[in-house]
Amino acid sequence: KSRFADVTLGPPIEVFALNKAFADDTFENKVSLGVGAYRTDKGQPWVLPVVREVEKILAADETLNKEYLPILGLDAFSSAATAMLLGKDSAALVENRAFGVQSLSGTGSLRVGAEFLARVLGSKYFYYSKPTWENHRLVFTNAGFEEGREYRYWSESTRGLDIEGFLEDLRKAPENSIIILHACAHNPTGCDPTQDQWKQIADVMQERKLFPFFDSAYQGFASGDLEKDSWAVRYFVSRGFELLCAQSFAKNFGLYNERVGNLTFVLNDTSYVPQVKSQVTLIVRGMYSNPPSHGARIVAYVLNNPKFYDQWKEHIRTMSSRIIEMRKALRDALERLSTPGDWSHITAQIGMFSYTGLNTAQSEHMIKKHHIYMLRSGRISMCGVTPSNVEYVAQAIHETITN
Ligand code: PMP
């Protein structure tokens, strides 16, 4: 008998399965609204011009070689990434009690951080929003946590944040629990706490001694403004929290497949830094030994050169404003068609995704009948909505709801 005979078939990963179905579909006007990746007005993937330019510079630089990076990655990258997150003048940076570790995009940074919390700090419980990015649970469970629990977040009836439920669930969480928080542009709901609500969240977390682990996958990409999109993280740091934050450069740099990420640690005293770094070093060493260099070099180059940095900031404004325009266009089109329902949530939500409110059967109908690929939860990626397909998408939603 084969050693593999009893392996059971695992569930497919919905977004990747959807991507494949989209690629296999021969319908001319098919639309991909599943995976969160930016598309040009013509529906094509976009390599940021500043990335292309820096790649040429790096390719021509014969002083660069292919030797291993240090275990914790390229310092020029992680320092710049941490400063981008916390702000150059952050007290935590000035006092040398914050540092970054280059890891494998957002996911790898979450994983290294989660494993550190579970193994080194002995954390047992992690809390995630209901709903959340579907990978949080798998990443944290595989990292060694005992149990993952939900906190209330989205209210179906108000199509907004259930702040009372959220705070109540935090109050019930055992001390030292890890609370995963989306830094901005909550995935999948597109609904973030207001500044006042963040203050209430921080109050409860401080009182209950809960530990924040921020997931920052969309800094700059959500509003076009790096400061605005890191407000919550900076606010928690200013309140004296120790915390972790996983940063992804997949969306804001369009470097999806280069796996560029940074895990920031903020401690309350610089004297703990060497010990913490040494334990993170052991975790990375035992997992993948050291990170790849290509993407990190690109980001480091851009963040450390004012001319390229400005060019990149222009790109994130292009991407975020196109998304905001498409939210308006989609809402307008639905209202023009008098599609039943209230569509104001489409423009109220921010970031890459919109929770349309379509149910599972309706979402499946969108795929089967209209070749518009979206998640069964009704989530669509606003990046896939373009001036050339927004009308088609609106008509399809209209037909789906009224048929
Ligand atoms: N967290 C959230 C909330 C995300 O939406 C994503 C990307 N979909 C990630 C983390 C990580 O993505 P990556 O590993 O590609 O950086």
TrEMBL record:
Please give the superkingdom of this protein's source. Answer: Eukaryota
Q: According to its UniProt record, which cofactors does this protein need?
A: pyridoxal 5'-phosphate
The record's section on SUPFAM superfamilies has: PLP-dependent transferases
Q: What class of enzyme is it?
A: transferase
**Chief localisation class:** cytoplasm
**What biological-process GO terms show up in the record?**
aspartate biosynthetic process
Keywords per UniProt: Aminotransferase, Cytoplasm, Pyridoxal phosphate, Transferase
Q: Could you tell me which Pfam families the record lists for this protein?
A: Aminotran_1_2 (PF00155)
Q: Which PROSITE patterns match?
A: AA_TRANSFER_CLASS_1
Care to name a GO molecular-function term for this sequence?
Answer: L-aspartate:2-oxoglutarate aminotransferase activity
Known EC number = 2.6.1.1
Q: Which residues form the signal peptide?
A: none
Key word Cytoplasm present in the record? yes
Q: Where in the cell is it found?
A: Cytoplasm
Name the catalysed reactions. L-cysteine + 2-oxoglutarate = 2-oxo-3-sulfanylpropanoate + L-glutamate; L-aspartate + 2-oxoglutarate = oxaloacetate + L-glutamate; 3-sulfino-L-alanine + 2-oxoglutarate = 3-sulfinopyruvate + L-glutamate; (2S)-2-aminobutanoate + 2-oxoglutarate = 2-oxobutanoate + L-glutamate
Which cellular component, as a GO term, is one annotated location? Answer: cytosol
Q: Where is the Aminotransferase class I/classII large domain?
A: 29-397
The UniProt subunit note reads as follows: Homodimer.
UniProt lists the family membership as follows: Belongs to the class-I pyridoxal-phosphate-dependent aminotransferase family.
Q: What else is known?
A: In eukaryotes there are cytoplasmic, mitochondrial and chloroplastic isozymes.
Name this protein carries in UniProt: Aspartate aminotransferase
Q: Which organism is it from?
A: Ignelater luminosus (Cucubano)
